[in-house]
Design a protein that fits this description.
3-stranded antiparallel sheet; two-stranded antiparallel ribbon; alpha+beta; 116 residues
Length: 116
């Protein structure tokens, strides 16, 4: 039996690919102290790669990821990784950690000498 495409996942990715919506969502739902440190202007959000090559030819794909500048202008950006789950998953935090590792490995492969 063929798997049905996950329409909720497609909708989530399309919706949260819009920087203005992500900025508003974060400003509203993040704790005030956290959101206050971010420059949540839509034009400041930079989309990040969401597909990463895995070991032995596999690939991993995050739903949506952005780099957000801090309001104090410090060089350490904030990363927003929004991952939609249609049902509870016990290992979702490990999946998020894997996405972070892939992103840092990609930075090193591109020749960056420090990770952000």
């Amino acid at each position: 039996m063929a798997r049905r495409p996950n329409v909720h996942d497609h909708y989530f990715k399309q919706l949260f690919a819009r920087p203005a919506l992500v900025a508003g969502f974060c400003a509203h739902y993040l704790p005030r102290g956290v959101a206050a440190g971010m420059k949540l202007a839509p034009e400041g959000l930079a989309a990040l790669p969401t597909e990463f090559a895995g070991r032995e030819g596999s690939s991993h794909r995050a739903d949506v990821a952005f780099r957000v500048p801090r309001v104090d202008g410090s060089p350490l950006p904030v990363y927003l990784l929004l991952e939609h789950k249609s049902r509870p998953e016990r290992l979702a935090s490990a999946q998020i950690a894997r996405y972070c590792m892939h992103y840092w490995e990609q930075q090193l492969a591109e020749g960056q000498r420090s990770l952000s």
